Amino acid sequence: MLGEKLPDSYFESYGTCLITGGLGSLGVCLARWLADHGVKNLALLGRSGKPQSDVAGDLEALSSSSSPCIVIRACDVSCEEAVRNCFEELGRTLPITSGVFHAAGVLDDHAVRSLSSEHLKPVLGPKIDGTLHLHAASAALDVQTFCMFSSVASMLGNPGQANYCAANAFMDSFAQYRLANGRPALSIQWGPWAEVGMAARAGFSGVRFPLLDPKLALEAFGATLQSAAGKVPQGVAARGVIGLARVNWAVVLGRVSAAPPLLECFRPTSLQSAAPSASISTCPASKATAAVSNDGAARSGDEDTGAAAAQDDSPDVSSSGVQSA
Ligand SMILES: NC(=O)c1ccc[n+]([C@@H]2O[C@H](COP(=O)([O-])OP(=O)(O)OC[C@H]3O[C@@H](n4cnc5c(N)ncnc54)[C@H](OP(=O)(O)O)[C@@H]3O)[C@@H](O)[C@H]2O)c1
Question: Which of 43, 253, 318, 325 could form a Cys-Cys staple with 198, CB 3.0–4.6 A?
Fold first, then answer.
């Protein structure tokens, strides 16, 4: 685990926390978690304004509790005018927005050779245009947390997800851009979540990235924010781009002929002799970032027997071959 637990009062001083993709699965889990940590006002933005079915009951329960105050808006974040209007309207009715959580996103997986613009726009729009519009619309506000929900696919790649990887990689880079300009920024490269969310709905089985328990995922997220507040545990970067994922390194590295030197640190000893590169490091995984757990050789080949597992890591991905979120 990353470090200290986030205090229950962490967000008490925040005005409003705005969540894009706030009616999506992770968005609703995040809303519940923010409420548990002191948020009193939540603005949940979704494209259609309708909740994902796997969290509709949770949203209803949260909305019917006395706190926090929740407003729901339909807003396509890839549309500049819609975002600007939404911020203006929320600014008139709610306390100032001090937390922006950008969790809007969609998957549309295809092998690179069959990617066309119709597969790019819906995936890039919310993450690239949406990030830029949120950045602009919140520029004059005293935003204390600007957090983007990226993916481990951006960190390690994933067959069939070139569009999704690019969209998330933009947010990772944009976090660095904001930081360089003195603005808060975190981009969380999530591994796939279990039970709820786009990966769970797609039946992702977790050969390369074992699924994250939602409760533990949010605990790790809290510890990340805690480190972003300045209490940096065990060398984890305080802000910027952080991976919160379980990685089966034996599988991930066992299937590539050469990995960047940093990743070679994670290569299980049993695979090292097979590695073609002279750049193999023998540094143990425990010395690498604590934000990415090493599920290591012990898990290799012992899971994922379902149909989705057969698709996982296939170099030739069908249009429905969702492998990681
Ligand atoms: N679930 C995972 O395991 C996982 C892992 C890594 C990263 N992530 C990232 O975490 C975020 C949330 O994922 P999730 O599993 O909660 O997905 P989800 O359940 O499918 O929810 C995504 C939400 O984003 C909204 N959205 C899509 N395009 C939008 C747009 N242009 N403007 C406004 N809202 C838009 C959708 O609204 P409509 O339904 O109305 O279109 C939906 O409510 C995504 O960005 C995803 O890439 C998820």
Answer: 325
**Which of the 8 DSSP states describes residue 110?**
B
Average pLDDT over residues 140-146: 94
- The rounded distance, in Å, linking the Cα atoms of 183 and 134 is 13
Global pTM? 0.86
Instruction: Name the nearest CA neighbour of 246 among 290, 205, 292, 203.
Output: 292
d(CA 21, CA 103): 5
Q: Does 204 sit in the ligand 1 pocket, CB within 6 Å?
A: no
The candidate with the shortest Cα–Cα distance to 204, out of 57, 92, 56, 312, is 312
Decide whether any atom of ligand 1 lies within 6 Å of the 205 Cβ. no
Q: Which domains does the chain have, with CATH numbers?
A: 16-247 (3.40.50.720)
Termini Cα distance of the chain: 22
Q: What tens digit of pLDDT does each residue of 40-82 get?
A: 999 999 999 999 999 999 999 999 998 899 999 999 999 999 9
